């Protein structure tokens, strides 16, 4: 009995590490995609005027990245929350995105793009958007 319990703990620790690695990997991919997307499709005056459709496209490209899929086990990829009604209840996924949510349990793609947008200078003086 004791040996079984120890084995389960090791598996849970390994699983947690795999999910953390997949999260960090996904963040790097999303950051690159989001920056590229924002450079190609600049928003008039405010880059935070991103639509849910555009964010979902970034998410789909990130999760579909073959290198991401090959570096991470499917079980750890499946553990990452995706944007949708289950992870963002009550959110209208049409129109522009409300970036005021900052809960750490939100999908990685939302949090990552939010960080990029709010870290970007909003004026000639380089003040951060908050």
Characterization of this structure:
Helices cover 58% and strands 0% of the residues. It has helices at residues 2-40, 52-64, 66-71, 74-78, 108-119. It is globular and about 45 Å long. The relative contact order is 0.15. InterPro entries: DUF2471. It comes from Burkholderia ubonensis subsp. mesacidophila.
The major beta sheet can be summarized as: none
Question: Would you tell me the overall average pLDDT?
Answer: 84
User: Kindly, what is the distance between the CA atoms of the first and last residues, rounded to a whole number of angstroms?
Assistant: 53 Å
Q: Percentage of helical residues?
A: 55-70%
Number of domains: 1
pLDDT < 50 runs, ≥5 residues: 123-130
What is the succession of H and E elements? HHHHH
Task: Provide the β-strand percentage band.
Answer: under 5%
Q: What coarse outline follows from CA principal-axis ratios?
A: globular
Q: Kindly state the number of beta strands.
A: 0
Number of contiguous helices: 5
- Which value, in Å, is the CA radius of gyration? 17 Å
Structural class: mainly alpha
């Amino acid at each position: 009995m004791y040996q079984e319990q120890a084995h389960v703990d090791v598996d849970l620790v390994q699983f947690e590490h795999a999910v953390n690695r997949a999260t960090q990997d996904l963040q790097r991919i999303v950051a690159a995609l989001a920056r590229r997307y924002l450079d190609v499709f600049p928003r008039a005056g405010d880059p935070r005027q991103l639509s849910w459709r555009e964010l979902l496209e970034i998410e789909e490209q990130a999760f579909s990245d073959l290198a991401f899929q090959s570096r991470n086990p499917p079980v750890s990829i499946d553990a990452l929350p995706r944007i949708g009604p289950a992870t963002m209840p009550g959110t209208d996924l049409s129109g522009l995105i409300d970036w005021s949510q900052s809960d750490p349990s939100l999908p990685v793609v939302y949090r990552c793009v939010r960080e990029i947008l709010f870290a970007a200078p909003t004026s000639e003086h380089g003040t951060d958007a908050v």
